[in-house]
Design a protein that fits this description.
Elements lengths: L2 E6 L3 H12 L4 E7 L2 H11 L3 E4 L8 H10 L4 E6 L4 H10 L3 E4 L4 H12 L4 E2 L1 H12 L8 H11 L4 H8 L3 H15 L4 H10 L5
Parallel strand pairs: 1-2, 1-3, 3-4, 4-5, 5-6
Length: 206
């Protein structure tokens, strides 16, 4: 069975290179290509390929492009081929419906295997990407701060000492220290400054 592909990438050299690679494989055929998501969607709708091999960061690309492909051409499986492997790229792409995620430094044989596997309905991930996904699955979501802990951290952010915080909240300094210990654990930090900075970053403090 011949696997029919559409290549979507905004770099002509990349498209040319991929097309040249696939010519060598009797069972892999490039039936179309496009330089952006909008054009890629039109080509995929017209050609009804088995695989859409796409970059992520390009005009009209990314997770929204993958979602539209899944909606408009449900028979096509989306295989991402990109240079970006951050959580902000990998997870949205997979959530949107991509069946696989490869990096552009992958050996050509790995790309060939991935295309064939994806066409057979198998999920394909580069080792680095697979490690990120597993780490995200294994890492529990950050614990929420209680209302009292937020109040304590808010006073710390204002520059209050433990003694001043205790006086303001009518609690003991020991209780303040206990709250801070819990805060450090939940935020994954080890000191007051890091706790305040992390809390601001996560939107836990106004």
């Amino acid at each position: 069975m011949t696997v029919r592909l559409v290549i979507v990438d905004d770099h002509p050299v990349v498209r040319d290179g991929l097309r040249g690679m696939f010519v060598e494989q009797a069972d892999l055929e490039v039936v179309g290509e496009a330089e952006n998501g909008e054009r890629g969607l039109a080509v995929a709708v017209r050609e009804r390929p088995d695989i859409v091999l796409t970059d992520l960061r390009m005009p009209d690309g990314g997770a929204e492009f993958i979602r539209l492909l899944a909606e408009r051409v449900p028979s096509a499986r989306v295989l991402v081929l990109t240079t970006y492997d951050g959580d902000d790229d990998v997870l949205p792409a997979l959530t949107a419906g991509a069946i696989g995620y490869l990096l552009k430094d992958s050996p050509r044989e790995e790309v060939f295997r991935a295309v064939r596997a994806a066409a057979a309905g198998e999920t394909v991930l580069s080792p680095a990407v697979a490690a990120r996904v597993l780490n995200r699955v294994r890492t529990p979501p950050p614990a929420e701060l209680s209302e009292r802990e937020r109040t304590v951290l808010g006073l710390v952010a204002q520059g209050c000492t433990n003694k001043e915080t205790a006086a303001t909240l009518f609690i003991s300094e020991t209780t303040v220290k206990t709250h801070l210990a819990h805060i450090y654990t939940k935020l994954g930090v080890s000191d007051r400054a890091s706790a305040v900075a992390t809390a601001y970053t996560r939107g836990l403090l106004p």
